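Handout, page 2. Input:
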Amino acid sequence: MELDERKLKILQAVIRNYLETGEPVGSRTISKYTDLNLSSATIRNEMADLEELGYILQPHTSAGRIPSDKGYRLYVDNMMREKEKEVEEMKSMLLEKEDKMEHLLKQVARVLANNTNYATLISAPTVHHNKVKFIQLSRVDERQLLAVIVVEGNMIRNNILETEETLDDETILKLNMLLNTNLNGLSIDEINLGMIAAMKQTAGIHSEIVSGVIDAVAEAIRADEDLQIYTSGANNIFRYPELSDGQRASEIISTFEEKKQLTELVQGTLTDENNTGIQVYIGEETPMANMKDCSVVTATYELGSGMKGTIGVIGPKRMDYEKVVDALKTMKKQMDQLYDI
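Output:
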C-alpha cells in the first residue's frame, strides 16, 4: 500500500526525531514537527495505521513509536531519490549557467575593448573561502561509495571511496546525517582535528569513510581549476607607436595568446588582501615581464557566494586613466548586479 502524503510526512517526522534523540516518539512531539496542523488525536490515529502497516513499532505499552526496518527502508529510498534528483537538477542548472556566463564574459571584454581602444581581459569567476553546502554518500557497488560534495557557488565534486565491507542503507543514511550535521556551512579551515576525531569516534568501524570524505572535501574546496580568461582588442596595441614595433608587439600578443602571465596577474589581484577594487599598474609596476612598457588597470567584480573575477585593461603608459577607471567602475557595477548566479 502506498502511503498518502499525510502518513508519509508523519512517518518522516517519527524517523527524523528518533534519529536525533534515540527515544520513542509520541504524537504530541510529532505535532511540533509537521506542517499539517493536526491534533494529537488525529496524529495518534495516523500512527496507529502506520503501525498496522508495519512502518513503525511500539516498544512497550504507553510508549511512543520507533521506526521499523520497513519504515527505515521507505525513508531511505525516498531520501535517496530526492537527493539524486536535487543533484541532477543542480548539474543541469550549472551547465546552462556556464554557457550563459561564457557568452557574457566574452561580450564584456569585447565591449570594453571597443569603448577604450585598448586590449582587455576578463576572468571567469572563481570561488574564494568556499564552504561545504551538502554531502551525499550513495552506493556504487558492494565495495564502493560515491561521495558527492557541493560547495559554495554550487560547484559539485564527485569522489569514489573504497570500503572494506558492504554497507547497508541505514548505515549510509547515518553516515550522511553525521557528515552533513557536522560539516555543512564550514570552510576547510574550520574543520579541526577535534571535530574530525569526534566524528570518527561516532562512526566507529566506519571511521575510515569519514577520513575519506574529509580528504575529498579538502580537495573539493582547494581544487585549483584552470582559470578561464577571455581577451579582446589585442590588435589595439598596434594603434600606439611605442608598443607597435616588431619585437615589443610580438611579446605583448604572445602574452595574450599564452595567457600564463595573465593568469598570474588575475590570481595576484584576487588574493591581494589590500585590493579594494581598482588597481593601477604603471610600467615597471606591471607584474608581467613582457608588459613593462604598458599600464594595466584592473577591477575585481563579485557575483555573490564568494565568487570573484578580474576585469582588466592594458594599454600604453599614456593611456587615458580617467576614462579607463570610469569604464571599469561602470562595468564592475554592472557585473555585480547583472548576473544572478
